[in-house]
Every structure is written in structure tokens, then in C-alpha cells.
Amino acid sequence: MSILRLLKLDREESSAHPSETDTVRKITRALDQLEPEKAKFVAAFAYLLSRAARADLRIEPKETEIMERIVMEHGQLPEEQAIIAVQIAKTQNILFGGTENYLVSREFGALASLSQKLALIDCLFAVGAADGSISTVEDSEISQIADELRIEHKDLMQVRSRYREFLAVLRKE
Questions:
Q1: pTM, whole model, 2 decimals?
Q2: What is the pLDDT of residues 115-172, one digit of tens each?
Q3: 119 CB contacts (<8 Å, ≥6 apart)?
Q4: Contact 89, 50 (CB under 8 A)
Q5: How confident is the model at residue 64 (pLDDT cuts 50, 70, 90)?
Q6: Looking at the domain covering 21-170, what would its CATH class be?
Q7: How does 113-145 read in b/e, with b if 16+ C-beta sit within 10 Å?
Q8: What is the largest CA-CA distance in the chain?
Q9: Can you tell me the distance from the alpha carbon of 73 to that of 83, in angstroms, rounded to the nearest whole number?
Q10: Distance between alpha carbon 89 and the CA centroid of its chain, in Å?
Q11: Is the distance from CB of 121 to CB of 106 less than 8 angstroms?
């Protein structure tokens, strides 16, 4: 391996996939038995789940379990692959979240249909509700993701209304 490739300065390699982020590529490699487009979709999907879960700067074990189940179901993956995808997504979010968040949202937006985007938003709320309460920070992060995916506010509110009982902002305590 050349030093340029090691430092990611190799022009041929770096220009091969200009729209893919390193985060999506890393998760995609873990899912290399899948067709490339499906692997990219699952990688971005898992990353966005971890982004919402980590909005409050911690990912609870219940949130991880929900993310793994969701990735298994929506990605139609065996449990082992779903666990790998979620673990890598969580790690990438911890390490590179600030710089990768928008890029991964944009990439997912390019891959997904409107119904897939709305399904993701529903899953984001489900992850937030895993511990019994969707914090204001988690709710805000999900709204930010919806904006980045160009989901109309009315569509976001329709999905959000299904999680009304979990929204901390609406709870009387």
C-alpha cells in the first residue's frame, strides 16, 4: 500500500466514490455480502439511528437493542450483520458525529424514497422512546434529521404524534 493511499491522498481512490462518506464506506464493508446499494442504505440508516440515540450524549442498552432489531427488520439482515452494522454506526457516530451527521443524512436522502425516509423517522422516534421517554434533545435531533432529509413539517408531525405519550416536552411531571 502506498503512503498516499494510507493517508487518503491517493487521487484515484479518493475520487472513486466522491459522494460516499468514510462512515458509510466503513459500515458498508462490514455488510459486504449485500449488494452495494443495499449496504449503503443500511449503513446510512444504522448511522442515523445511532445519531438520534446519541443526541443526549449516551446510548442506552435498550436503545441499542431497538436499533439492532430495527436494522434486522428494515435491512432484512441476519442478527449478526445487524449487530455489526449498529456497533460500527455507534462507534462512527461517537468518533465523527459532528462532521459526518449532515453528510450521512444527505447520502441517505439520495438513496431513499419518501416512504423510506418517513419509515426512518418513525424508527428514530422508536429508538428515542426505547427508555420510556423521548427527551427534548432527541426530539430536536430527529427534527434536524427530518429537515436534512427534506421531509415536510406536516409529515414529521404526523409521525411524531404517534409517540406523543413519550415526548418529555409534553409530560406533566
A1: 0.81
A2: 999 999 999 999 999 999 999 999 999 999 999 999 999 999 999 999 999 998 776 6
A3: 74
A4: yes
A5: very high
A6: mainly alpha
A7: eeebbbbbbbbbbbbbbbbeebbeebbebbbbb
A8: 60
A9: 12
A10: 7
A11: no
**Three cell numbers at 117?**
425516509
Q: What is the DSSP letter of 170?
A: G
**SS3 at position 22:** helix
Shortest CA distance to 120 belongs to which of 92, 98, 96, 151?
151
Amino acid, single-letter form, for residue 2:
S
Arithmetic mean of pLDDT over the chain: 86
DSSP states of 98-146: HHHHHHHHHHHHHH--HHHHHHHHHHHHHHHGGGS-B-HHHHHHHHHHH
- Whose CA is closest to 121, among 40, 45, 59, 57? 45
The domain segmentation of the chain, as residue ranges, is 21-170
Query: What single-letter DSSP state applies at residue 34?
Result: S
